[in-house]
Amino acid sequence: MGYLDYRQKPFDESPSGKGGFYDNLNNVSKETKVEYDFTNEPTLDVPGDWNSQDQRLMFYEGTLWYKKDFVITPKDNKNYMLYFGAVNYECHVYLNGKKLGTHKGGFTPFQFDVSSKLNNGENFVVLMVDNTRKKDEVPTINTDWWNYGGITRDVLLVSTPKEYINDYKVQLAKDNKNVIEGFVKIDGAKDSQEVSVEIPELKIKSVFKTDNDGFVKFNIPTKN
């Protein structure tokens, strides 16, 4: 039954949340019954694919586990994002033994808010990376490009102020080229936070106020 339960329920969905590579255990004695030890395993450069770094992985297609230790003293007035430029193709991300989430897509960046999940001092992040091709996904079984696997772009721990611009857009209005429209989304903003939109080349500077969610849409007439 233990084997069946393991197959039906991944370790990160188990009640204890324990038992996977993401625990970063060390095989210090036979009593621990741990069959892996990241500290004694081969290393790979990140960013980089695994195919070109180790001859044994040239044609490998499947799962590989990564682990990185780091030390940080989080500041109360900062937010922290764990950012990945790209991982090919599917990955599961764990911080200090707890799952942050998953991502699919080998060419798109993604990130996780880890502000409340960092330890003061030693931390470790573990990734399960899988480049297995599937019939109903991209890349599919038959492709005309090399199926690289690995963490192929930068991994960053990004700090921001508590109040920061999460997203924005500025463009000409679709139905009126004499109007500039867009939006700004501020995380951590107070009610009616002022936002300044400035385009020096057009001598435009306008101030708007966000709603309770830190969001504001704007329309600015251009000067002929």
What's the arrangement of secondary structure elements?
Blueprint: H1 2-8, E1 48-49, E2 63-72, E3 78-84, E4 90-95, E5 98-104, E6 110-113, E7 121-130, E8 150-151, E9 155-161, E10 164-173, E11 176-187, E12 194-199, E13 204-209, E14 215-221
Antiparallel strand pairs: 1-8, 2-7, 3-6, 3-9, 4-5, 4-7, 10-11, 11-14, 12-13
InterPro entries: Galactose-bd-like_sf (IPR008979), GH2_Domain-Containing (IPR051913), Glyco_hydro_2_N (IPR006104)
Keywords: Glycosidase, Hydrolase
Family: Belongs to the glycosyl hydrolase 2 family.
> In what order do the strands lie side by side in the largest sheet?
2-7-4-5
**Which runs of at least 5 residues are low in confidence (pLDDT < 50)?**
1-9
Order of helices and strands: HEEEEEEEEEEEEEE
Number of helices: 1
CATH architecture of the largest domain: Sandwich
The first-to-last residue Cα distance is: 75 Å
Strand-residue proportion: 35-45%
Structural class: mainly beta
How many structural domains?
Answer: 2
Radius of gyration based on Cα positions: 23 Å
The mean pLDDT is: 86
Number of strands: 14
CATH class of the largest domain: Mainly Beta
**Most strands sheet:** 4 strands, antiparallel
Say which CATH homologous superfamily of the largest domain is assigned.
Galactose-binding domain-like
Q: What's the helical proportion of residues?
A: under 10%
